[in-house]
Amino acid sequence: xxxxxxxxxxxxxPRPGHSPHGEAFDSGPRTRPLLMPFIGTTHFPxxxxxxxxxxxxxQGNTLLHSFWDYEAERSFRWCLKLEPENAMxxxxxxxxxxxxxxxxFLREAVKxxxxxxxxxxxxxxxxxxxxxxxxxRDRGDGFRDRERxxxxxxxxxxxxxxxxxxxxxxxxxxxxxxxxYGTETILREVEARQPDHPGxxxxxxxxxxxxxxxxxxxxxxxxxxxxxxxxxxxxxPGHIYATVGMWKEAAIAMDSATRTEVRHxxxxxxxPFNYWNWGHNRAYLSYIQEQxxxxxxxIAGARDLIEAPQDPASNGAAPFSPHSQGIRSLTRVLVxxxxxxxxxxxxxxxxxxxxxxxxxKAYAETRAHLGLGNLxxxxxxxxxxxxxxxxxxxxxxxSIMSVELRARLALAKGETLLGLGLLTEAAEKQFExxxxxxxxxxxxxxxxxxxxxxxxxxxxxxxxxxxFEKALTLTRNDRFALDGxxxxxxxxxxxxxxxxxxYPSSPLDKFGPARWSxxxxxxxxxxxxxxxxxxxxxxxxxxxxLVFYLGRECPHCLKQLRDLxxxxxxxxxxxxQILAISPNTPTQNQSLLGNTAYQGIRFLSDSNHENARxxxxxxxxxxxxxHATILIDKxxxxxxxxxxxxPFEDLKFLEQLVDQLQKENLPNL
Length: 669
Prior knowledge:
Layout: H1 3-12, H2 51-64, H3 69-82, H4 87-96, H5 99-111, H6 118-131, H7 143-160, H8 165-175, H9 180-193, H10 198-208, H11 217-226, H12 231-243, H13 247-268, H14 276-291, H15 295-307, H16 322-336, H17 340-344, H18 355-371, H19 375-386, H20 395-412, H21 416-435, H22 447-457, H23 461-474, H24 479-487, E1 519-520, E2 526-527, E3 533-534, E4 543-548, H25 555-566, H26 568-573, E5 576-582, H27 586-592, E6 602-605, H28 610-614, E7 618-619, E8 624-625, E9 627-632, E10 637-644, H29 651-664
Parallel strand pairs: 4-5, 5-6
Antiparallel strand pairs: 1-10, 2-3, 4-9, 7-8, 9-10
């Protein structure tokens, strides 16, 4: 055989740990789905041969209506395992995934669209029109043009198949916010025929969230009742309740959602850095607890976000990672409740050397110094903030913060008229900013409340009242504005459109734990090179790095093991043992160790893949091993893992994780 042909065949052969079906299958969930009760009920009939396919497809479709894409993908992947050529299973995967993976799945659906009914073909063609996956047919249209073509085909489905609620709901989803009344008309049509469809109530909440939110109060109650096992179905009503000023109901909703997400993470061995919903729930709950006068709970929640496990690929500097949301939440509550000494304590907030943190730190420290009367130090902190004048990554925040702090500095110097004028300008800017950024607000404070306080200090009660009332148009039943009005001599009653339950006494434990915590590692039951059983209990009191590798034929694995072995003394000094486990038999592992190249690693045998399955280092959809690097602390808790098609090679990050465990002073077993 010629060398070029050999090289071509080798290039076509998937690398160990990678799917033979392409890169799109190398990401996302790798373990089979479970039947999920209490998620709502939908039915999307598709062409199929195996009745089980329809059941899993319906579950995936139901989950998509609640934006639970990750679990939806799991269901669609199982459909594809049962029927590898099913066009609509690929269509479901295209909807459940994003970016290039979605396009890859959609191309597979398009290839097979001749095998389905006209109705199903139109669904595929609608998504094809929106994504324009064929470069030769792509006219270079903007997204709005492609979205228009997508909606036109959905309208065709609605007309040709008048009993099809799914097309109507996808059309409502596509129109949401652009045509609120038109969207509501579609939703009412569906409601008349299927009043408990989860998508109906979910999309109504989104549709009216920032305009006439009372229109979605009934759907907020119903959505949570229909799908109590879906965190997002408990979370979204909290948006409506917060928008209408029902803060107790908002707290119940967000707390229930947070607990549900924690329970799912524990059940599925999922970490917060792979579960964006939890971070958003917890950050919003902290904001709501501020409004309820519960700063200690808000602070504890922010710390949960900050202390959640991190990963080099996620939960880092990205603005909406749990860690970033925790830093914003902690800063906000400490500023609102004037915890100035805490803000100046370097141990309170783990500031990072990134623009968003540097500007927020400069702002918070300027506020703290002013609050403590340290004008000279406040000037220094303000000068640090001014360095961001031309930084486009923080333009929106800087334009408000710089004016606000100039105002506060002027007021502190007795320049009252200048200070009030600048603070009015800052309040107007912050008002406009929060109207488009209220999820929860990025800015630490409603500045019309600050302006009201400044007018009270200047003995201008009428202007103070006008400022506090303006704040209430931005945030209904804002406790700080209501308190300001009371002190200004014009108290306003706290009113809600519906009665509320009491938050602290609500029984929420049924939804799950209040906080995320490390979970127990699965059982390890493997054989060493002498055929003797090895279990995690043998390592009680020691941290364990457990590496699942793919055997002697995987060059990437052997490189990872060589690198780990070179660091083994460093890990031993950190009370950490390295175990490497593979399908190799004990005899094969003895052969691998023959040259004594891996003296810092203990090799284990998992010939039947039982351990790989327990630790999720196994792809149920393609029946193949996966690379996995897992950190288990000395109490037997899972603290971090990375599973996928490539070995994890960032050993410096692993050392940092172990160092964090050493600082936690965990109890010895």
